[in-house]
Amino acid sequence: MADGTSKIGPAAPVQALTPAGINHLVINVRDIEESHKFWTDVLGFKEVGRSSRRNMRFYSGDHSGRMNHHDIALVENPNLPKPPAEWEMFDMPVAINHIAIAMPNREAWLRQLAWLQHKGVKFHRRVNHGMTHSLYISDPNGYGVEVLYELPREVWGDNIQGALDFVENLPTEGEAALADDTHYPHFGQVPAPAAE
Fold first, then answer.
1. What is the DSSP annotation of 148-177?
2. pLDDT 10s digits, 139-195
3. Are residues 157 and 127 in contact, defined by beta-carbon separation less than 8 angstroms?
4. Cα-based distances in Å from 35 to 96, 99, 190, 193
5. What number of other Cβ atoms are within 10 A of residue 27's Cβ?
6. Residue 56's closest CA among 70, 38, 66?
7. 3-state DSSP helix/strand/coil % of the chain, to nearest 5
8. CA dist 118 to 38, 99, 108, 114, 126, Å?
9. What is the pTM of this model?
């Protein structure tokens, strides 16, 4: 630099860097005990810690047999409005549309669906997307929760748009809600643009 000092640190990039992904999610809940029961007893997350400063709890999924510092955290806010009586995918008066929870594989996902049905959890939607097979339920605050397993990458390949556009709605009650077809449609490569 002109004054004889050197600049410390890297130069700013020309654009924002792409993150590795979402590290954790913190949600406000009306009743922390009610939400704790949902996230642990219903969805299976493990509590890994509590804040000593606020009514806040931290939860982890299974990361190859180890716990994470937290994947999700709950903060009690009793002033939140009561959620609507019925959950819908769109036009709900809550800030979070849905939170997607990945099961490690298809077998674990099927067992989780059977567990949720056994617990009497209402299945709002059962959907085969082009990149996941999914169940939509809702938490006590009206937030949607998608429980899914990822389809193999070769199913959707590089055609993310094709996989996003694919939706197959399935039954939400009885044995039919627990069925899973593994004859996945394949989307493959995105067609190359036509030569001009």
1. EEEPPHHHHTT-HHHHHH-EEEE--STGGG
2. 999 999 999 999 999 898 889 999 999 999 999 999 999 999 999 998 876 556 666
3. no
4. 15, 14, 42, 49
5. 18
6. 70
7. 20, 25, 55
8. 14, 22, 15, 6, 16
9. 0.88
